[in-house]
Inverse folding.
C-alpha cells in the first residue's frame, strides 16, 4: 500500500492519504473521491479537482476516515502526480490555510 493509491470499495473511490512510514498499522487513513456533479460545490483548495481513471473527480477530504486495510484490495490508480494539490487540502482541513 502506498500513499496516494486509489481503491474502489463498495462503489466508492478512496484515496489513501496516510504516509508509507506507518504501513504496519492494520488501518489506513482515506478520503473519498466523488465524480464532479452539480450537488457538490467544492472549495478549490479543500476539494481539489483530480483526474482518476481518466475521469474528473473531487477529493472530499472533509469526509476523512480510517478503514481496515483488509477491505481495500488492489489499487486502481495512484495520484502522486497531484501531490501539491492533496497536500494543500491537508493544510486547509487541519490548519485552515
Amino acid at each position: 500500500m502506498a500513499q496516494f493509491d486509489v481503491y474502489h470499495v463498495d462503489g466508492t473511490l478512496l484515496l489513501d492519504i496516510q504516509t508509507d512510514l506507518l504501513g504496519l498499522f492494520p488501518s489506513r487513513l482515506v478520503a473519498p473521491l466523488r465524480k464532479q456533479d452539480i450537488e457538490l460545490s467544492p472549495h478549490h483548495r479543500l476539494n481539489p479537482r483530480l483526474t482518476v481513471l481518466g475521469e474528473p473527480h473531487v477529493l472530499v477530504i472533509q469526509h476523512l476516515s480510517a478503514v481496515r486495510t483488509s477491505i481495500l484490495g488492489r489499487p486502481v490508480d495512484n495520484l502522486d502526480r497531484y501531490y501539491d494539490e492533496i497536500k494543500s487540502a491537508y493544510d486547509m482541513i487541519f490548519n485552515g490555510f
Summary: Residues 83-95 form the longest helix (13 residues).
